[in-house]
What does this fold into?
Amino acid sequence: MQTGATKRGVLPGFGLTMGYSVLYLSLVVLIPLSALLLNSTGLTWGKFWEVATDPRVLASYKVSLLTAAAAGLIDTVLGLLLAWVLVRYDFPGKKIFDAMIDLPFALPTAVAGVSLTAIYSQNGWIGSLFEPLGIRLAFSPIGITLALMFIGIPFVVRTVQPVLQDLDAEVEEAAATLGASRLRTFRSVVLPELLPPLLTGFALAFSRGIGEYGSVVFISGNMPMKTEIAPLLIMSKLEQFDYAGATAVALLLLLISFVLMLLINTLQRRVRKTVR
Amino acid sequence: MSKAKTKGILLSLVLAMSVVLGACGSDSGEKTSGGAGETLELLNVSYDPTRELYESYNKAFAAYWEKEKGQKVEIKQSHGGSGKQSRAVIDGLEADVVTLALGYDIDAIQKSGLIDEGWQQEYEKNSAPYTSTIVFLVRKGNPKGIQDWNDLIKEGVEVVTPNPQTSGGARWNYLAAWGYALHQNNNDEAKAQDFVKQLYEHVKVLDSGARGSTTTFVERGLGDVLLAWENEAWLSVKELGPDKFDIVYPSESILAEPPVAVVDKNVDKRGKREVAEAYLKYLYSEEGQTIAAENYYRPTLDSVKAKYADQFPDIKLFTIDEVFGGWAQAQEKHFSDGGIFSQIYLAK
It folds into this structure.
C-alpha cells in the first residue's frame, strides 16, 4: 500500500489531523475569503479600480500601513527589551508582570481605545503634558500608532521569549572568555538567534495593526485624508449598504498585506539560512 | 497518498462536518406562536438611543395587549448603530419590527425584499410616531456665545459631531446645517456647500458614532459645541448634571423622523402580523406618546404635545422631503463616494 516516497511517521493520526485542518481552514478562512471575492464580483474591473484607488481610500491605506509599520517597529524594540527583562532577570512581581503582557489580547479593543484616548487626549494625563509642546498625541497618526503599539506588543514578547529562554548562557560566556566585548557578544552571538523570532513578532504586530479597528476609531479622530484608517472606510461603506465598494477596499488592502507578509516571510527564511 | 489515509481524511471530514451541522440545527425548533395562554415573542430591532424608551414602552404594550387580547407578549430589544442593525436584519436577524434612526436604513431592508413597498405610508406621519431635531449642546453659560448655526463657523469655535458616513444619526446633523444654509442664502447651493465646508473645518474629531462624539465632548472635554439629537442632548444634561451643559436651540433645524416598520416577510412566516402591527400602532396612542415624550422624543399627538410644550421649544423645522426630496436623493448627492461630504475633504 505504501508508495515509496512517503515514509510512515512514528505517530499515527495523519489522516484525522489533516482532515480536521482542511475542514477548519475552509470554514474559518477559505469560505469567508471566497465570500469576500464573490461580493466584489458585482463590480466591473474599471469600477473596482476606481473605488479602490479613490484618493480618500489611498490616503487611508497610507495611514493604515505607515502607522502599523511604525507600531510594529517600535514594538519589536520594546518587545525585545521586555522579553529580555522577563527571561534574564529575577525580580519581585515578575509573574504578575509576565501575565500582564497578555492583557492586550484579552481586553476588548474598544475598551483599550477609550482608555488610551482618555490618557492621551489633550486633557488627559499624558496628553496634557505634550499639548504645550505643540504635540498632539490623540487624534493624530501618533495616537493611532500608540493604540497599535498597545495591541501589538504581546506578539513580539511571546515570540521572542521562548527563543531567548532556550539560548544557552554558556555560549555568551564562551564569547566573553574569547575576548568579545559585550556589544560584540550581543551582536554576533545573541542577535542572530533572535532575528527570526523578532521578524515573526514584527510581522504579527504589523499585520494585526493593519486590520485593527476597535481601538483606533476612538483615538484617531477619523479625519478623512489625515487620520482615517482603511478599516474605518470599509465600515463607512457598509454603513451605506455599499457591500461591493467595501469589499473592493478590503480586497486591495488584503492583497497589499499579503504581499508584505510574503516579503517578510522570505526575508525571515533567508535570515534563518544565514544563521544556521 | 495511501488509500487508507485518504479514507481517514474523508471520514474525519464527514465526522467534523456532522458535528458542525448538528450544532447549527439544534436551535431550529422554533415554535409558531398563536393561541391564548402561550407567550408571544416579538423582536424589535432598534438603534442605540432608544433603549430606555422601548424598555418602558414594551412594558406598557405588554400590559395593554394582555388586557385587550388576553395574550402574554414578551418583547425583545436589540440595539446598535442604525445602519448595522439594518444590515443585521438583511443578513437574517429575524426582526418582527424595526424602529431605526432614518428611513434610508429601512429602505435598504425593503430593497432586500423583507419589507413590502410603501412601508412609509403604512402608519401616520410618515411612519414616524415620534420625532426629534438637531440642537446644540454647549458648555455651561455658553462661553462662546453660540446662538445659531452661523456662530459655529466663527473663529475659534470647535465643533464636535460624528462622521455622517459612518453614523446614520449624524446624517441628520449634516442635513440640518445644509438646510439652514440653503434658507439663509436664498437656496443658493454653492453657498450652502461653502457653509457646510466651513462647518466641518471646525470639526477636529469625527467620531464614528453619536455616542463616541458625546464621549469626546462630555468626558474628554473637547470642543465648544456638540451637535446632537434633542433627546440625546436632554439625556446628557439630565445624567451628567445640569450644572455642566446648556442646550441651545438654533433658529431652525431639521425634523428628524426616526421611522418604524413591520418586517413583513418575518411576521408572515411566523404568524405574528397582528401583534406586530398593534405594537407599532400603539406607539401613536396617548400612552405611547407620553412614554416617548418622557424619553425626550417629540410626540406627534396633539394632546401629548400640548402637555410637554415646555420641554420642546417651538422652532422652525424643515423635513428631509421638503429640502432634499427624500433619503435616496440626499444619500446620493451628499454621502455617496464622491458626494459633497467627500468633496469637502478632498478639496483641501
Remarks:
- The two ends of chain B are 62 Å apart (CA to CA).
